[in-house]
Design a protein that fits this description.
- The chain has 396 residues and is an alpha+beta fold.
- The chain folds into three domains: 159 residues, ATP-grasp fold, B domain (D-amino Acid Aminotransferase, Chain A, domain 1, 2-Layer Sandwich); 85 residues, ATP-grasp fold, A domain (Dna Ligase, domain 1), CATH 3.30.1490.20; 148 residues, Succinyl-CoA synthetase domains (Rossmann fold, 3-Layer(aba) Sandwich).
- Helices cover 37% and strands 24% of the residues.
- It contains 13 helices and 18 strands.
- The strands form five sheets. Strands 7, 8, 9, 10, 11 and 12 form a six-stranded antiparallel β-sheet that branches. Strands 1-6-2-3 form a four-stranded antiparallel β-sheet, covered by helices on one side. A four-stranded parallel β-sheet has the order 14-16-17-18, with helices on both faces.
- A hairpin with a 4-residue loop joins strand 7 and strand 8.
- Bound molecules: guanosine-5'-diphosphate (GDP) and manganese (II) ion.
Amino acid sequence: MNLHEYQGKELLSSFGVRIQRGIVAQNAEEAVTAAKQLTEETGTGWHVIKAQVHAGGRGKGGGVKLAKSLDDVKSLAGQIIGMDLVTPQTSAEGKRVHQVLVAEDVYYPGDSEPEEYYMSVLLNRSNGRNMIMYSTEGGMDIEQVAEDTPHLIFTEEIDPATGLLPFQARKVAFNLGLSGTAFKEMTRFVTSLYKAYVQSDSSLFEINPVLKTSDDKIMAVDAKVTLDDNALFRHKDLAELRDKREESPIEVEAGEQGLNYVDLDGNVGCMVNGAGLAMATMDLIKQAGGEPANFLDVGGTADAARVEAAFKIILRDPNVKAILINIFGGIVRCDRVAQGVIDAYKNMGNINVPIIVRLQGTNADIAKELIDNSGLDVLSATEFQEAADKVQQVLG
Ligand code: GDP
Ligand code: MN
């Protein structure tokens, strides 16, 4: 589960990580009130108005703007709220902005130039250890840095038995070229950041940029936080931060039905039980000249009701030109699934896409009979290849 920047920053702050202070606003009037309050608390005259959507690269898309007066705050917030923000990380239609973060300007002039760094905390899956990845090249696309100047990206791995050790935090500050107050600030920053990561059961923190202000404070200016869904039951307060407006409505509905569904761009809907079989089925569709419209795992214990729910969800995608149902009846009996498909088909009435059903396993023969005798526009297949051929046939 992803958090908005403002939620991520609040989480970090609660663990003692210094952040650029801000207040979230739903409309231009609230933005002005927020700006006034920030001026009272921090003394700042300038504010940044930042679109709150689950996508990075907002600055490039015009979703982050500097306001030098309350009039600016009002007009910029008014512009950004309601816009469809297109960034390198969104689709061409962009993401609708429902709220902005009004934040203090922290790039104020002073003894030294503000400097931007990159820092993320994530799991190194090859050895199962958390690591801190960081770079002097902050504020820009880290993928680009990795390509052009890979020697400017550092990693620090953390032994789960000891946790982050003080010398490691100092090493980070040293490699970033810091000294004096900024060095101490950075060791504190890294230490609290790592603590926040572990204690919130996150799977990704990406702070780009981490800022050294002109008076040597180290703070998070941006925060991308991804929480581990499997640990959300331990964090009821964090689970409540979910913003369903940011998610695909079909995916949300599927989740509520206990289905594992991912929306894709293709034209062949698939309903499969088991993630491995789902991957193989998607390959099969591609070989047959189609493109999968979705990944859908109905689960190993799929019953007729779940099949029906899955069926309805697939059909909500207007791009679907055919549906391939590929179910292995191990725990679930094939005849039950077949009956579920037939019932769903009849209940829904106006299904006008061809359906290919391959049921293998317990009672597969009865299932095939049910399908073949249903009088519906449903093709049955026994073998994998046969299913592929039929997909090809219906796509024409
Ligand atoms: P992203 O584009 O979605 O990654 O959003 P960020 O939160 O990283 O903001 C984009 C850029 O806005 C940053 O890289 C900064 O250059 C700029 N920015 C953010 N906060 C401030 C600020 O307080 N003052 C000024 N002048 N620029 C800021
Ligand atoms: Mn950023």
